[in-house]
Automatic annotation (TrEMBL):
Residues 26-70, 349-395, 405-450 form the Chitin-binding type-1 domain. InterPro entries: Chitin-bd_1 (IPR001002), Endochitinase-like_sf (IPR036861), Glyco_hydro/deAcase_b/a-brl (IPR011330), NODB_dom (IPR002509). Gene3D superfamilies: Endochitinase-like, Glycoside hydrolase/deacetylase. It comes from the Eukaryota. Its cofactor is Co(2+). One of its GO terms (molecular function) is metal ion binding. Keywords: Carbohydrate metabolism, Chitin-binding, Cobalt, Disulfide bond, Hydrolase, Metal-binding, Signal. This is Glycoside hydrolase/deacetylase. Disulfide bonds join C36-C48, C41-C55, C368-C382, C424-C438.
Length: 450
């Protein structure tokens, strides 16, 4: 056969092979092409538009768009001016990979809330386990979590009311090592604003997307400046790679391998999983709980596994100190215990009260000793239940007052009536809105009851 005939036949074969392939348009934005028109977003595939597929999540190309969700904040003022005192013993701005409390294990779930989060909360209720959720503000297939026209604020409030630890996982899940300092900051601040809109506080715990937050990129410096504990993991289940019934065993095996390795310095494990994957909810989580208990681990939140009081997990958005201006001011509503005096030892570790004998007066953590026995300066510490025998407290007027921290009832003479949507005072003296709070035994003099 003549050579030119072979070339002709090969060309014809190649042409025939492409006849049935769908036609593809060229990308219209992105590297080497250019930007979208104002108001449009450049999708990961290089198309301009305004849909969630174009603008949502971390796939919108920032360099070629002016309207990616990343740069669009939630409603309300910025939280940048919130005071960020670094209190407690847990370090700020450095990677924390494991628990410090012996034989504790913290299950953590990233990227929610999403379609399976409510089911996850049901499961954790059934198992009587508290977990930590690293919440992402806006997803490509889910609107921002503070949008009250959606189910997500209610899901998050249920999560918080159940006693789970809620933390930040950025606004749109950008790799913080691959963006500039402005985007790094907006990823944190925008998520804070959404938390503020839902809860009235911002978290102090944070996990970086893809666990990427280096010193060189400036990310860890930003974490320190904004007052965040940077949480990594000692066990990564890789559940996102194994989200089918056939592959779920791989995630289980990774968990089992990790739990069989003793943590350094006698601490415990922090486990990384995701509540946005069905197999994690229906298959993996119950296995992790059962295996942990069988190996003698105590299942707790990240804050608990690091020995951090719950009062330290969140910051008041106004950031202002509520400590009385006089260092010797005390309330007159309680006669229990002696007045604070210089004979008490100033708290060296944030604990206070009768169990330790430490006073908060003059401590580095704040002058108020909370009902739970920790020093601080916000209304949570200085208001309802504050122990004036071991520090200063906000003045209390006679009669029933509004709770400052969710404690309520006859013992505190505090009402839930103006405590957000948690208007029922439970038999045990806690504000909430569940059947446990509002049903049988609800204290009707101190809030609403069903």
């Amino acid at each position: 056969m003549y050579p030119f005939l072979s070339v002709l036949l090969l060309g014809s074969t190649a042409l025939a092979a492409t006849i049935d392939l769908p036609l593809r348009k060229r990308a219209v934005c992105g590297p080497g092409i250019g930007s979208c028109a104002p108001g449009l977003c450049c999708s990961q595939a290089g198309w301009c538009g305004t849909s969630p597929a174009h603008c949502g999540g971390s796939s919108c190309q920032l360099e070629y768009s002016d309207s990616c969700d990343t740069v669009i904040p939630p409603p309300g003022s910025s939280t940048e001016d919130v005071a960020r005192d670094q209190i407690g013993s847990v370090p700020y701005g450095v990677r924390i990979r494991q628990c410090t409390e012996p034989k504790t294990l913290a299950l953590t779930f990233d990227d929610g809330p999403y379609d399976y989060t409510s089911e996850m909360l049901d499961l954790l209720d059934d198992l009587d386990v508290k977990a930590t959720f690293f919440v992402q503000g806006s997803r490509i297939n889910r609107p921002r979590f503070d949008d009250e026209s959606t189910q997500w604020p209610a899901v998050l409030r249920r999560m918080h009311d159940a006693g789970h630890h809620i933390a930040s996982h950025t606004w749109t899940h950008r790799n913080l090592n691959q963006v500039d300092s402005d985007i790094q900051r907006s990823e944190i601040i925008h998520n804070e604003m959404a938390f503020r809109n839902v809860f009235g506080w911002i978290p102090t715990y944070f996990r970086a997307p893809f666990l990427e937050c280096s010193v060189a990129s400036g990310c860890q410096g930003l974490m320190n400046a904004l007052g965040y504990h940077l949480i990594d993991a000692s066990i990564d289940t890789k559940d996102y790679e194994n989200n089918t019934p056939a592959l779920a065993q791989i995630a289980k095996d990774r968990f089992l391998t990790g739990i069989l390795q003793d943590p350094a310095e006698g601490g415990g494990h922090i486990v990384l999983a995701h509540d946005v994957h069905q197999q994690t909810v229906t298959n993996l989580t119950e296995f992790m709980v059962g295996t942990s208990l069988a190996h003698g681990y105590r299942l707790v939140t990240v804050g608990e596994c690091l020995g951090d009081p719950k009062e330290n997990w969140y910051r008041d958005v106004d950031g202002g100190s509520t400590t009385p201006t006089s260092a010797t001011t005390t309330t007159t509503t309680s006669s229990s215990g002696p007045e604070p005096t210089s004979t008490f030892i100033i708290s060296p570790d944030q604990t206070c009260g009768g169990a330790t004998g430490y006073t908060c007066q003059g401590s580095a953590f704040g002058n108020c000793c909370s009902f739970y026995g920790y020093c601080g300066s916000s209304p949570s510490y200085c208001g309802t239940g504050c122990d004036n025998a071991f520090g200063s407290c906000l003045p209390q007027s006679p009669g029933i007052s509004d709770t400052t921290n969710g404690l309520c009832g006859e013992a505190f003479q505090a009402s839930c009536a103006n405590y957000g949507d948690k208007k029922c005072c439970s038999p045990h003296g806690y504000c909430g809105n569940s059947a446990t709070h509002c049903g049988v035994g609800c204290q009707s003099l101190f809030g609403e009851c069903n």
